[in-house]
Every structure is written in structure tokens, then in C-alpha cells.
Amino acid sequence: MTALGENAQRAAKLMAKAETAQKNAALVAIADALEQSRDQLKQKNAVDLKAGEEKGLDAALLDRLALTDARIDTMIEGLKQIATLSDPIGEISDMSYRPSGIQIGRMRVPLGVVGIIYESRPNVTADAAALCLKSGNATILRGGSEAIHSNQAIAACIRQGLENASLPADAVQVIETTDRAAVGALLQMKDSVDVIIPRGGKGLIERVSNEAKMPVIKHLDGICHVYIDEFADKQKALDVAFNSKTQRYGTCNTMETLLVSDKVAADILPDLAKMYVDEGVELRGCEKTGELLKNIKQAEAADWDTEYLAPILSIKIVDDLDQAIEHINQHSSQHTDSIITENYTHSRRFLREVDSSSVMVNASTRFADGFEYGLGAEIGISTDKFHARGPVGLEGLTSLKYIVLGDGHTRA
Asked: Phi then psi for 283, rounded to 5 degrees?
């Protein structure tokens, strides 16, 4: 691990001064390598999936682990899209003259070495490498043991792409051991790792937050809400609320709680509940919901604070917008929350008053994703309020330094 850190530090110095064209060439070369290795990627992933099934991994984890053709396509598209994005490194902004005559501004620079610890999803290997590469950082990646074969196959493509572009192969290092001690060692490497990003379950993120000796970019839970307002268009409400829950169950931007205004609940909820039940979603409701929808489970207090990552949905009927916002700000994990409404004032109040990293109007919570936001991909989602908030793309992997331009100026 010490050697990995030293290698990453050396690579980071080279990456910080790499030309944009060179970085873009590496991204395209990695995309080409993934395409050429598609069959091998799926074969290695099949080994991981079989081992996961034998270990008894649940359906949500197996879904995250699967490397389908569609997900390989998304990795390739993400790499190519990042290659087309503007290079943030060296960008100068906020230049202004001071009374003394000097000019003050800020320049965007890499963070340095980014450590990323993640579980299950092998596509994170490519996404993280691409974003770190374009933002001029070196990275040390530690995937979960359940995806070791998939991650190593992707790592080989990344190394090939870096070498084709004459960039240091150690700019992206994937830890090869599955020994859990490697995670503990990485979290202590404050002299060679500048920031840590955990992606995975609550246990992993809590451990990283507690043990890391360097700054952490993270979110702990994805307890997301959709509120159907009294001024909602019914068809939009049905479409968005259904998609927010059922498009994928095992993701952090999947809706876990549906809030419905009591003024439209009788009109909308029966139709929506039938859609959910037909899809196999278990419904748990408040007392008012239980009176309206028969044969559903009574929601308990813990349900409002639970990230199911499964076909389970909590439903609460609320009096008005005020009560919806109050419930969200009390129970949300500050990840993503959406309102369905045709009322301009209500939409603007929701945007302003809901304290989450992504707040939406008439859109599925499943859009809270770096790729959908035009970031090319994301390295994670931050619900913290410093440095980066929301999906973390290129800019989230950079910092700013002040620059001062003078012409022999001295301070009186």
C-alpha cells in the first residue's frame, strides 16, 4: 500500500501538467479497449456473479454487480462524453483589480491523489478513472471483493489506454488484493492520498467517515421522496412517481417515500397503487393511506427513515405543502427530493425550502446522476455542504487557488 501511494504521488505530478489532448486521447483509447474486450469483461463478470450467488448476495447487490452489454455501453459512452467536456484544469475565473493595482483571481487545480473505495458496481472503476484522469488527478481504486475479476479486467483496459496516450500507467491503480486490511491501510495514508470517496453501503461509508485521516466526499443514505401536490397533473404524477420507484430498486436515487396531498389522494393513489402492486412493489402506508388503500401494511415510524433498496415503498398522505416539506427535511437524507405540481409558487417554495443536494420539479428522482446531469459520469454523490454537493463530476475533483498578478507592486 505504501508503494501504491508513492506511485500515485509521482503520477499525480505528471497528470497535473498533462495536456488536454493527451488526456482526451487516453479516454478514447480506454473506451476502445473496453469495446474490444467486451466478451472478456462479461466472462470475468460471470465469474463474480456466480461467486456472489454462491455467497448468498441479495438481489440488489447482484444487480449492482452485473456488467451487462447496456452497462458496458454506458461506460464507453461516459468515457467518450468526458473526453468532449471542457478541461477544468488551469481555468482562471473571478479576475478583478484591487485598489493597490494588483489583479486577483482563482485558478482551478487538481486535488492530487484521490482514493476511492466502492462495492459491487464494476462500472465505477471506469467512471472513477475517467473523471480523475480528465481532472488531472491520480487515483487509487479499491473495489469490493465480490467484483475482483470484473475490476481487474476493466483495470487492464485502463492501463492500456493510459500507455497508448503516453500517460503514467500508475495514474490509475486498482488494488489487487481482497484483503480487508487494505482498506484500513488506505484510510491512514494521509501523506500520499489527498481525499477519499466511499461508494457503497452504509457500513462502508460509516467506517470510512470514522477512520479516514483525510477529507471524505460522501453520502450516507439515499432516502428520496416524491411529493404529489394538490396542483399536480395526474398523468405526470403517475408517470414520475412510478418511474422514481420502479426504474431500478437498488440505487441511492430511488424513491423510498411517496407523499401525497390529501386533496388529490383519493383520485391518484388507487390508480398508482395498482401500478405498484402489479409491478410487485410492497406498499406500507400511514393511517390515512390505509383507509384509502385496503390490504396494505401499516407503516411504522422506522419506515420513514429507511432506505429499502428493494421493491418496498412507504406512502404518507399529508395536509399540504408545508407538511410535505417538514416531513422531507426531517426524514430525508438530503439526497434527492421531487415535487409534482403545476403551481409555480409551490414549485419555487419546494426548490428553495427543501434542504437536499438535488431538488426537482416534475421529474423522476432517478435523474439524480452525474451522467444524466451532463457531467459525463459521476464519482459519487455528496450530501455534505462543503466543497462539492450533489453528483460529483469534474469540478468536484478539483480545488481553487488564488492567483495574484502584479507588475513590480509592493505593499505600502
From this structure: -105, 135
Q: How far is CA 101 from CA 151, 264, 404, 406, 411, in A?
A: 54, 62, 11, 7, 10
Question: Degrees (nearest 5) of the Cα angle 275, 281, 287?
Answer: 90
CB 42 within 8 A of CB 49: no
pLDDT in tens, 156-207: 999 999 999 999 999 999 999 888 899 999 999 999 999 999 987 778 888 9
- By C-alpha distance, which of 115, 197, 184, 141 is closest to 370? 197
Measured on CA atoms in the order 22, 27, 33, 36, is the torsion positive or negative? negative
Q: Which residues contact 73 (CB under 8 A, 6 or more apart)?
A: none
- Which three three-digit cell numbers place residue 24? 482526451
Give the closest residue to 23 by CA, choosing from 88, 73, 91, 112: 88
DSSP assigned state of 299: P
Beta bridge partners of 173: 140
CA distance 221 to 107: 33
Q: What is the pLDDT of residues 227-276, one digit of tens each?
A: 999 999 999 999 999 999 999 998 889 999 999 999 999 999 999 999 99
Question: Which H or E run includes 333?
Answer: none
